[in-house]
Amino acid sequence: KNQVEQSPQSLIILEGKNCTLQCNYTVSPFSNLRWYKQDTGRGPVSLTIMTFSENTKSNGRYTATLDADTKQSSLHITASQLSDSASYICVVTPNSGYALNFGKGTSLLVTP
Amino acid sequence: GAGVSQSPSNKVTEKGKDVELRCDPISGHTALYWYRQSLGQGLEFLIYFQGNSAPDKSGLPSDRFSAERTGGSVSTLTIQRTQQEDSAVYLCASSTRQGATFNYGYTFGSGTRLTVV
To answer: Are A111 and A102 in contact, with CB atoms under 8 Å apart?
Structure first.
């Protein structure tokens, strides 16, 4: 069973609108949680990294939140742009070792 | 270079042939990972190299898959007798150690898209 579940699987929004992507995980204890953006045909690029003690982290128009009690994280995108169209992947690193747990990603399409 | 470099970017091969995929990690990164990303699926861990330690091969799906890392730098992932189900994007990542974590500076390459026909 995948230890990182993301929702929605896909999302279409209009340019300029905001959206929020969800990540629920069961990995425990964990060291950090990351959000990656993966453009088509490219490798994932890190957006945010949060340790278990952090609640929020921003990177420009991207804001990630973390609730370690409910084991939920969200990625909020503000004032979306066409270039935000990509897959967004949630990744959780367990406390023990190096193996990362990946979600299957949310595919976001921003339309004009 | 400044990033993780993978080659080739695309590879089409006939079923039954062997293929080699190459990864050049970021200079100085001691940890190197291989992942596979099948269509519509999440990233699947294949193998992990850390310095001179024995690699963690627990993610390799079959004995047709092998990987080596020469001189603690460049890595090659080899798939023998390729099958159609091997078609996927193979991603390499590298990282270094900072404090207690081996995931500092974790960076992915752009991947090799393998198509087995």
So the answer is: no
